[in-house]
Amino acid sequence: MIKSLLTPWRDPLRIHDLTLLAMMFVLAACGLIYEYLLSHYAARIIGATESTIYAMIGVMIVSMGIGAFYAKYIKCPFTGLAWLEVSVGLLGGLAVLVMAVIFSAAYVLPQELHQLYGIDPSIAIEGGMVAAFRNLADAMPFVIGFVLGVMIGMEIPLVARIRQTLHDKHLQHNIGTIYGADYIGAGCGAALWVLVCLHLPIMLAAVLTASFNILVGVLFLWRYGQYVRTLRSLWLAHVFVGCLLLLLAVCGGGWLSGMNSMLYQDKVEYQHQTPYQNLTLTSRQTGPNLPKVSSLYINGRLQFSSSDEVIYHSFLTYPALLASARQERVLVIGGGDGLALRDILRWQPNSVTLIDLDEGMIDLFKGEAEGVPAAVSELLLSLNQRAFLDSRVSVIIGDAFLEVEELIRTGEMFDTIVVDLPDPNHPDLSRLYSDYFYAKLAELLAGDGAIAIQSTSPYHAKKAFMSIGKTLVAAGFTTEQYHANVPTFGEWGWTIGVKQGLPASSRIAAFEALPVDNSWLSVQQILAAFVFSPSYYNGLDNIDVNELGSRAVYRYHHLGWRNDGGIFFANNVDLKN
Known about the structure:
CATH superfamily of the largest domain: Vaccinia Virus protein VP39
Oligomer: single chain
Order of helices and strands: HHHHHHHHEEEEHEHEHHEHEHHEHEEHHH
Shape: elongated
CATH class of the largest domain: Alpha Beta
Helix content: 55-70%
Number of helices: 19
Radius of gyration: 28 Å
CATH architecture of the largest domain: 3-Layer(aba) Sandwich
Structural class: alpha/beta
Strand content: 5-15%
Number of strands: 11
């Protein structure tokens, strides 16, 4: 009985099948991880997250089709697959570092030319060779994705030919069997990306993925070496790439960090990749008698500068708190740096609830992140004045879109709501600027309370700014918008709304002075911020409300910053799409 059960597993052809299908499973998982990894990193360095990710996946899918087509020209499938895996392991392990080197070099080139030829820094060097090099840097992720995709696309046809050669006959369901292993492996690769790779430094994720290609290659050479030509060269190649990957695992993270640091003019003090975003803290000593300027960048975009963040956060928090009848219970959406929280606590609320998705950022600004230099941790704690350690503060880690629903379900109410989210530069953020989300926030806001929303630049992304205001109106609020100059950002804007009664500006005008001291802000300044040029809102009827799923505000933001280059035309009042 036992012998009969074990007989099929002793069949050499059955062992071949299991070996090849297991290899195909692993290779498919690696291929899917490469797609996500290259898309993720390309979006980080190029920007335009959604279009970059979709373009990269599209390029790799097309290139895999090309690879599958041209695999027929490889005469020996055994030798071809062995060289293919060592090549995929080499390129996959180096891909992120190569992109970082080229992109950093393209950024540094203008600075080197300024110094080499004594050109004044105020003169931009953006044409000719510099422009060509930057175009090459932008294209390089897609070139690497294309080459890697072609090689990955060759794997299925080669494995299918190898399996058929070993059986020495035509196999009726050969392709279907191989594709079955491929699809299941790809699904597991997607799960590994979400559950494991996203939580690792991107360089380490690339090296680990490439290591599995090399392991498959080693297994293949050990099992089918008798069918492989140039066997000695292949063993040497696998050993060489294996050693290179080991070196990259040990040193690659530091090298990548060094490349990324070249993208910043100031000294990089600390970098950390959370599952959701890349955090970079820089510092600059501006003068012998001036304080050091510290700046936080999220995914390469400036989040705040210590030199003037007080302006931004004062205008974000004070108007809404002043317009609210009470300031006992406050809700903050976003604001993981704790700076808005710091200003709110000065109003002596009974409690403040903050919702943020990124626990890694909260831990950093709470002083509880592991591996952070003590000086960096102390700097961040001094900036937010240890706001997260205040007993009145409760933090909810999660997606605000879902957590707000939970607060409604439990019957929570707040006197003031402050929304301090990043600009709507990603489709996922667009829903947090939607009429649906604002309507849900209205359910949490007391009838005599006020809500304030960070609303991007009213000039460099005018349509997005106006869309946010119009969306808050659609959600049932009496809405106004205001603006102020934040030197590191330029002119910046906010939206404020109340559910009933007098508009926010009328409530603020009833005060002669701020009830809470602020060395930068006054009632008069706040009221002046509500003033726009007479023609500013011309064409408002042509601006779309950001309905849930429409992504109107994301589209407007993308047009303003990427297509129009952030240029504002004072005489252009045509806001048609």
